[in-house]
Amino acid sequence: MPRVLLIEDDPSVREGVELGLRRRGHEVRTAATGEAGLTALGEFQPDLLLLDLMLPGMNGVQVCRQVRETSQLPIIMLTARGDDFDVVVGLEAGADDYIVKPARTEVIEARIRAVLRRIEEPGGRPPVEFHGDLAVDRAGLGVAKSGRRLALAPSELKLLLFLSAAPERVFSRQQLLENVWEHSYHADARLVDACVRRLRNKIEDVPGSPRYIQTLRGFGYRFGPL
Predict the structure, then answer these.
(1) Using CA atoms, how far apart are residues 14 and 33, in angstroms rounded to an integer?
(2) Which of 18, 30, 114, 155 could form a disulfide with 182 if both were Cys (CB 3.0 to 4.6 A apart)?
(3) What is the pLDDT of residues 108-128, one digit of tens each?
(4) Residue 160 half-sphere exposure, CB side, CA atoms within 13 Å?
(5) What is d(CA 99, CA 24) in angstroms, rounded to the nearest whole number?
(6) Cα atoms in the 13 Å half-sphere on the side-chain side of 33
(7) Angle between helices 85-92 and 60-70 (to 10 degrees)
(8) How far apart are CA 194 and CA 200, in angstroms?
């Protein structure tokens, strides 16, 4: 079972989430502050980080940014304010998903599994595909641009693999939420938009004039090198 690091300052939430995940077989380490969480990160080596957005002192966005400087560890942000601008800031900082508190353990467990689930290789497709100067290695789950390997967060990699598997096909935000984030209900489209912006910053020569991931206003996104 995946090892989970939980950084949460509310004792009741922290204990409840920890107990629920341990009952499901996860090894869990907890921290009450961002600073303590970063220390535990190096010691514990988790498979996924559950990160509260509103931490005292060093907040969740700052923690997320610092983690992303050196690691592509999957990150799910916990927030009690699902409609806040802070959620967008957290997603832009590199979070792969977010959960509005309070949330049942089953929901948290499902999100953890969705973020960590490896993408299966579609039958009949070559292990490495070339799209312009992008090389997509589906078997090795890697992406390179002009021969330089890119460090993509899990949600960014999943989005790119999904879109590039069907070049020129337009996908709505809801379709992307269902297939990449595995949200079966009408979820927040900001997850998609924030991930697209982060991905463009990594794969596009000019993110403001994208060559690979194109927006069709009113419809969604498609992959297709120009």
Answers:
(1) 11
(2) 114
(3) 998 898 888 754 544 445 567
(4) 31
(5) 19
(6) 6
(7) 10
(8) 10
